[in-house]
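Hi R.,

As promised on Friday, here is the backbone we talked about, encoded as structure tokens. Could you run it through your design pipeline when you get a chance and send me back a sequence?
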């Protein structure tokens, strides 16, 4: 990640995910935050936790960023995702609201 400029709070979020820090992961989202994982949408902390337990933090996932774009509205990080649930190049697009993640969208990278 050292060669890429990843804006906050996305950089801290990726570091938190790679440490498998469930509480930090959940705290990174706004109260009404959402995850859109290939069209399956999980809204609110309880739904995000349920999804993450099986497919994200609970699957000991790590993201190695390879590309970053920031259009002023959304930050997209494309990288190599590795977990016990799924592996491969993925695009993570973040919409930020007041320093927290309002929405994280995951698609093919």
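Update: got your reply. Pasting your designed sequence below so it's all in one thread:
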């Amino acid at each position: 990640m050292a060669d890429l400029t990843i804006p906050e709070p996305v950089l801290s979020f990726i570091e938190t995910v790679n440490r498998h820090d469930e509480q930090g992961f959940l705290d990174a989202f706004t109260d009404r935050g959402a995850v859109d994982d290939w069209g399956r949408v999980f809204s609110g902390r309880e739904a995000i936790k349920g999804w993450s337990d099986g497919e994200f933090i609970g699957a000991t996932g790590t993201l190695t960023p390879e590309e970053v774009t920031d259009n002023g509205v959304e930050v997209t990080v494309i990288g190599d995702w590795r977990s016990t649930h799924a592996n491969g190049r993925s695009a993570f697009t973040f919409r930020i609201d007041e320093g927290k993640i309002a929405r994280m969208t995951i698609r093919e990278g």
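One thing I noticed while checking it: Strands lie at 29-37, 40-43, 62-70, 74-82, 87-97, 100-108.

Thanks again,
M.
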